Amino acid sequence: MDLTLDAVTRKRLEQARELGRQQIRPLGLEADRQGRPTPPEHPFFETLIKLGLGRTRWSASDDARGDATRANDPTRVGTSRTQLCLSEELAYWDRGVAVSFPGPGLGEPTVLQMGSPEQKQRFLARFVEPARPIWGSFAMTEPGAGSDVAGIRTRARRDGDDWILNGDKSFAANASRADWIVVFATVDASLGRDGHRAFVVEKGTPGLANFVIEKKMGLKAYESTSFSLRDCRVPSANLLGGEEHYAKRAGFKGAMRSFNATRPMVAAMAVGIGRAALDEALAFARASGVEREPRVRDRLERIRRRLRAARLLCWKAAWLADHQRPNILEASMAKAVAPTVALEAASLGMELIGEVGGRGDHLIEKLFRDVKAMDIVEGTGQIQRMIMARKLVQLPSER
Questions:
Q1: How far is the C-alpha of 81 from the C-alpha of 323, rounded, in Å?
Q2: Is 378 known to be catalytic?
Q3: pTM of the predicted protein model
Q4: Set 88, 330, 378, 398: catalytic member
Q5: What is the average pLDDT across 120-145?
Q6: Is residue 397 part of a domain?
Q7: Theoretical Cys-Cys bridge with 104: which of 108, 209, 266, 355, CB 3.0 to 4.6 Å?
Q8: Separation CA 73–CA 62 (nearest Å)
Q9: Which phi and psi angles does 127 have, rounded to 5°?
Q10: Interstrand relation of 208-213 and 180-186 (parallel, antiparallel or unpaired)
Q11: Residue 78: exposed, middle, or buried by beta-carbon count in 10 A (0-12, 13-18, 19+)?
Q12: What is the CATH number of the domain that holds 275?
């Protein structure tokens, strides 16, 4: 593995750092105080579009060439790690604000991996050079199915040239403001993973309704949305990949490939939050003089060491993805390890600041609330350990 960062990536990180210092952290603190997501009409999002953010990695020329090494392909060497580095830096300043960025969001990997060229054109072309902030979204989680995605109950029924969707989804990022949502449903719950299908449900589709932005303990700057699908009629052209794609459990496998791409990114975000907590804890230790205590120095150094190790796990998973090699084990390792050490960093910070943390106005206290979600989203730590254990004893990873 080459651990050096190219000049373009370093420049992008410098730009992200400046944006984070000037706008992202203040906006995150504001959203936390107000207890609500940043509104979609906020001028910050217009600024991001002017900076060239909120765009897709896809372009029409990519599908025309059909080349696995094309410039915008998510598996191109270097692309995944660049995204991880940027995700870590943005999360350092505020992970909630970072997730609220306009763009195709978590729906993009699924469209890229499962969609036909025509579907990519329909759903991603608008994100190539958007004139205004627009969002995409991804909905897998349900009230009764979180980490166990095989247990989803949203039903899909064929009706002529359309599909009828019925069910409920939870914790879909930016769903109420999205132009479209990638929704996973099942044609038959008794089939388990074999029944999975992925649909793109567009904004304004009749039956797509009851959007509720959930109240959260942390990460308040972006919306986690629940919504319902009631006799929601979706054209067959919106079934990602078409009927032929779903032979041999391709629907479930497509979801898992998406998670293997996004789990290292979530882990990298946890590293970013952990870095922020460590920096704040170190600053407090210096200001209060407790840095002189060997026990405190030892714990601070231990956390720094573990954060660096977690980052390398993220990079290894990205390197494998860039080289089109299986990374399910490494993605789960990164996701299992990074949130744990990030929580340790925030916990140490809370311990050091003592009763100050109870006031609710210290950055470490906010980071302490923010970081817990990192062990939950994109598959809990328990699920990641189950995946790793199955690999260790050489059981199939999908059953």
A1: 11
A2: yes
A3: 0.89
A4: 378
A5: 95
A6: no
A7: 108
A8: 7
A9: -95, 0
A10: unpaired
A11: middle
A12: 1.20.140.10
